[in-house]
What we know:
disordered C terminus; alpha+beta
Amino acid sequence: MPxxxxxxxxxxxxxxxxxxxxxxxxxxxxxxxxxTGIAKGAKRSKRRFVNKLEIFSFLHLTCSDxxxxxxxxxxxxxxxxxxxxxxxxxxxxxxASVIRESLLLALRDGERDETVFRLALxxxxxxxxxxxxxxxxxxxxxxxxxxxxxxxVLEACLTCGLEVSPSRNFAFSHLGxxxxxxxxxxxxxxxxxxxxxxxxxxxxSAMELPLDKLHRLKLTDAMxxxxxxxLHLYGRHLFQRDIHSWAMLDAFGSRDGMTARAIQR
Length: 265
């Protein structure tokens, strides 16, 4: 007996060809988390799938589970938001790819996470609407690391407990996942990424504001440079590998006041 069909709201994370006509699709859904399915005949479809199963697209999918597990069967797809700009404008594609890769690295199959889903959708909508892409990426990563269980410690030194104040120097330790004072950073031999008082206040505010108000935060070029450098290293440590999509930011960083060398340091 065929499995009963069900419906999900999903973001497409990856696709690959399968044979002459089929498409393998990895997606992240609100209802069932990350999954990989097969869309039979998708490359020849003129009605069910045409121009829908593209990376970043936000879809309403009708699916069913295979007997004994394995690939989900994707029967139909209805398009909510195509996010076409994210696939056609190189700088937006590069930024959205970091978001997409972070999801692929952090999510396990079948693991539902409404907070991460809504955060990813917020970020893609913001990029598509033309909000400053590097500022948006910074805010996304801060909230993303927190949502997956690695909230950065931003209130006091990880080692000695010294409270943050504008008169004291702090750095972000990607190894510890939070701030360290200048004394403890020097003693550890791991200086971390130096953060100004303004950058620390920005990160603290970004962790507390409701998602729909995050775009109101004002970021300087220096804040973006410091915070993204710290968050890139933190992500590399958490995943125990680099996020390869960061390399695509190189060609576009200067347009937002960000140099590629600063991001990768």
